[in-house]
Structure formats: C-alpha cells, structure tokens
Amino acid sequence: MSKPSSGPGSKPLGRFFLPGPTEVYPEVMEAQLRPMISHRGSAMTEILQELQAGLEVLFCTKRPVYISTSSATGLMEAAVRNGVRSKLLACVNGAFSKRFGEIAAACGHQVDTYDVPWGAAHDPAELRNRLKKGGYDAVTMVHSETSTGVLNDIKTLAAVVREFDDVLVLVDSVSGFGGAEVRPDEWGLDFLLTGSQKALALPPGLAFGVASARMLERSAKAERKGFYFDLLKFQEGHEKFSPHITPALSTIFALQVQVKRMLAETMAVRWARHQKMAERTWAWVDEMKGKKAGLSVLAPKGFRSPCVTTVAVATPDLAPTIVKAVSAKGWTVGGGYGKLKPSSFRVGHMGDHTLAELNDVLNVLAEVIE
Ligand SMILES: *Cc1c(COP(=O)(O)O)cnc(C)c1O
To answer: What band does 11 get if pLDDT is binned at 50, 70 and 90?
Structure first.
C-alpha cells in the first residue's frame, strides 16, 4: 500500500506527527464524500453488519463493538455512567487518566486515585494493596497515556482487578488501540474504549467500545446513567443493526474503507510496524545525547507506548521553541501536554505512518535541535 506523496491539503502527506488527530489516508478521506443514506434503511444495516465482522477481528473480540458518534471522552463518560455504582478507584499517571477520575467525580461518584508520577506506569502489587481496602465498584486505567508516552501493562493490571469480586475494569486505549496489542476478551476487560482519530487513523468523531457481559449487567442496574451513553441502547442498536441516534454517517463511510485496509495489513503486522517506529524514535533520542538541549525519553524502558513518545527536554522552556521550529520547516510534532508543555514535545508515530516518514521528521528535529 504505497502512499501518495501529496494529499488534498496544502501540506504533503507524511509530515503530520501529532499524537492525535493523525494523518488520514486520502482514500479514507474521500469516502466521506459519499451521498447520505437513511440510517434506518437496509443499506445501513448491511454496512453495520459488515463493519461488525471486521471490527471483531481488529478488536480481538467475540463481543459486539459499539460505534459511538462522539469523541473518545464520550465513551469514558459511558464507562463511568454504566459501570460505577458509587465508588471508583482511578489509576492516574497523566492527563487522560486524571480526566477519567474527573469524569466520575463530575457524575457524582466518590473517587479515590492511585497516583504515580507523570511518566511512570502503575504497579500491579500496589494496585492490589489499594483494592484490598475494599468498597470499589470499578477501576479506571489508561493503556497508552498520550501525555507521557507511558504504556501500562493492562493485561497484568486487569488480572489483579479480577482477583476481587464484582470490581469492573474500565480501560481507555484511545492512543493504544490500533498500534498496541489489546485483547479485551482474553484480558478480562469489562469496558475497552478508543477513538477514531489516533492509531485508527480516521477523522475525529467516532468512538468504539467493547463491553463485557458483567458490564451490561451492571448497566442494567445503573441509576442516572442518562440516555445518550446508555450501553443497553448501544447493545439494542447493535442487535438490530440500527443505532439509537443518527450516527456520523460520513465518518462511518471512512471507517468502512479503513477497516478493510487494516484487515489487509493485519493487526499483528500493524503492531509490529508501530513497535519499529517507536524503537526508532527511542534510538534517535539516544543518538541526540550529545546535544545541549538534553533529550531523554520520559517513559521508562519496558513501559513505552508504541504509538507516542514524549521526549523530555532538559533545557528549561526549550520544548515549545523546538515544536515551532519544526513547524516552520513544514512538519508537525506535538507539544507537551498540560503541565509537561514547557519541558517536552511528543512524536505521534501512529496510524498509517511509515518508518521512512518517521526518519524524515526525526531528521528535521535533529536539524532544529542544538
Ligand atoms: C485523545 C485521548 C482522549 C480523548 O479523546 P477525545 O477524542 O479528544 O475525546 C482520551 N484518552 C486518551 C489516552 C487520549 O489519547
């Protein structure tokens, strides 16, 4: 699958390395120009049936894959509204995992946080200690913390939560899914959610969720879960292949094309491609060791996301200048997120990027960093 050297926009493709939204392949983009159809008609049923079959393969699940017309945060809220009765343990190690806890608090739940420094991963033994205190309905965690580039070992952490009776595991894999291996059924995840605009390389506007049977049981008894994000409505819509609201049809047309492309690549190959891009980025940071700026990979070895690398810059306030200088050369990398803005920049090596394109942006970065 070769990539055309220029897209419909002003910038050629292969230069946009934000950790979301990510570059969208032209063929996927163009699918959005298709005429509207009735979202209650037979054409829609066929589309959703075919999508479901493909999404099950991509998500490594036998469960339905719900398609939500919302950004990923919408399904974070769904996770909380359907899966938490009153008390949540939020594993926090960056901006997005912090948001998960904030959403639960905003929904009126009692929230305890298991905080580790931004840039660290969560420790299964410590999670067990926290859960032993008891009283939690659910645990939230983020797979790939997009602010820090840390990859949590979701498989092990979920297994720890599963040692405790009736505690649900709610997982945000927004910048993980599509680039990092995740297996909701095998790993016992009660809710896995992701968004369209990260490693799935689609335009923003859709989110995807996989719910376990116990998540749906919990949802059936949930009070004040609202209407829009009621997972039982998603389940009903799935069974009839007829969604409970008008979905973002244009983005769904794009999804049809992208699912086919991903099935052709296969998830194993996609995961390996992301891992190679990440390893190249970490090696490049090592190669930059002699520079005055003082670069290092924020995440510790063994806990690094294959999709995004947060590069810490030792020289105070230099990071935003680097991002601007790269931009002036016609390339895009991400700035630091939240409190990491002055001290880091981020390379989003996810979606449909290639190693060759990544090498180009790393060369541009090397030129602008003293
Ligand atoms: C981007 C992101 C989100 C938020 O997604 P939206 O689509 O902007 O709502 C949540 N969690 C993580 C880990 C993310 O990277």
So the answer is: low
The pLDDT tens digits for 187-222 are: 999 999 999 999 999 999 999 999 999 999 999 999
At 240 the pLDDT is 95
Contact 73 CB / ligand 1 (< 6 Å): yes
CATH of domain 26-263: 3.40.640.10
* pLDDT over threshold 80, residue 5: no
CA of 301 to the centre of ligand 1 (A): 24
Q: What are the sequence ranges of the domains in the chain?
A: 16-24+267-369, 26-263
Q: Tell which atom from ligand 1 comes closest to the C-alpha of 144.
A: 13
Neighbours of 106 (CB within 10 A): 12
| Residue 182 confidence (pLDDT) above 90 | yes
DSSP single-letter state for residue 36 = P
CA diameter of the chain: 62
What is the three-state SS of 94-146?
A: CHHHHHHHHHHHHCCCEEEEEECCECECCCHHHHHHHHHCCCCCEEEEECEEC
How far, in Å, is the centroid of ligand 1 from the Cα of 56? 22
Which CATH class name applies to 16-24+267-369?
alpha beta
Q: Ligand 1 center to residue 198 CA distance, Å?
A: 8
Handedness of CA 301, 275, 178, 11 (dihedral sign): positive
Q: Is the peptide bond before 21 cis (omega within 30 degrees of 0)?
A: yes
Q: Is the pLDDT of residue 6 over 60?
A: no
pLDDT given for residue 8 in this prediction: 45
Q: Which sign, positive or negative, has the C-alpha torsion 211, 352, 144, 230?
A: negative
Amino acid code (one letter) for 333: V
Q: What is the Cα–Cα distance from 159 to 167, expressed in whole angstroms? A: 11
Give me ligand 1 centre to Cα 72, in Å. Answer: 5
Q: Does ligand 1 lie within 6 Å of residue 337's CB atom?
A: no
| pLDDT of residue 4 exceeding 60 | no
Cβ(72) – ligand 1 distance below 6 Å:
yes
Atom of ligand 1 nearest to the CA of 20: 1
For ligand 1, what atom is nearest to the CA of residue 175? Answer: 15
